[in-house]
């Protein structure tokens, strides 16, 4: 992608607290976090994320960074040979293809960690998130009243 900003995925840490809180808006809290968070709850979650990285636990929470700026977050949750992917961008970073690129980077990482199937669960009322899954090559695999399921086979 010529001219596209360089993005990186880095482990999410407690040092990201202020940037993460500053980036939250109604859409992010609705689709990604389930509701507004307190500073204390967010700090506890970021500490948990760091602990999961240290222990190589099933949660791998990433910061989506453009240069050194936190633009959003992406979580991987490993369960056997599957990995669930959830992502959210802060308002000023949306609409630039960053979520799709972050999902593709996360899929490469997940495959290197042994995952064979990536899954994105999308609220049917959130077409923007479903579009990210489609652009990243995921296939609609069915749904229910809560989530549509999109899957992508991974290779090492």
Automatic annotation (TrEMBL):
Q: Mind listing the UniProt keywords for this protein, alphabetically?
A: Transferase
Pfam families reported in the protein's UniProt record: Acetyltransf_3
**What range(s) does the N-acetyltransferase domain occupy?**
7-156
Q: What InterPro entries does its record include? A: Acyl_CoA_acyltransferase (IPR016181), GNAT_dom (IPR000182), Ribosomal_N-acetyltransferase (IPR051908)
Single GO cellular component annotation? cytoplasm
User: Would you say which domain of life the source belongs to?
Assistant: Bacteria
Q: Name one GO molecular function term.
A: protein N-terminal-serine acetyltransferase activity
Against PANTHER family, the record matches this protein to: FAMILY ACETYLTRANSFERASE, PUTATIVE (AFU_ORTHOLOGUE AFUA_7G00850)-RELATED, RIBOSOMAL-PROTEIN-SERINE ACETYLTRANSFERASE
Its recorded name reads GNAT family N-acetyltransferase
Biological source species: Herbidospora solisilvae
């Amino acid at each position: 992608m010529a001219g596209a900003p360089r993005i990186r995925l880095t482990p999410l840490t407690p040092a990201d607290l202020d940037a993460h809180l500053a980036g939250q808006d109604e859409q992010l809290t609705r689709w990604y976090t389930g509701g507004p968070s307190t500073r204390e709850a967010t700090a506890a979650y970021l500490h948990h994320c760091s602990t999961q990285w240290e222990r190589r636990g099933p949660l791998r929470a990433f910061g989506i960074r453009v240069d050194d700026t936190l633009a959003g977050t992406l979580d991987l949750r490993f369960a056997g040979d599957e990995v669930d992917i959830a992502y959210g961008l802060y308002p000023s970073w949306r609409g630039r293809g960053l979520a799709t690129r972050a999902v593709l980077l996360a899929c490469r990482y997940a495959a290197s960690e042994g995952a064979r199937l990536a899954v994105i669960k999308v609220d049917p009322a959130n077409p923007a998130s479903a579009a990210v899954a489609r652009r990243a090559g995921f296939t609609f695999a069915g749904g229910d009243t809560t989530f549509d399921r999109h899957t992508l086979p991974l290779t090492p």
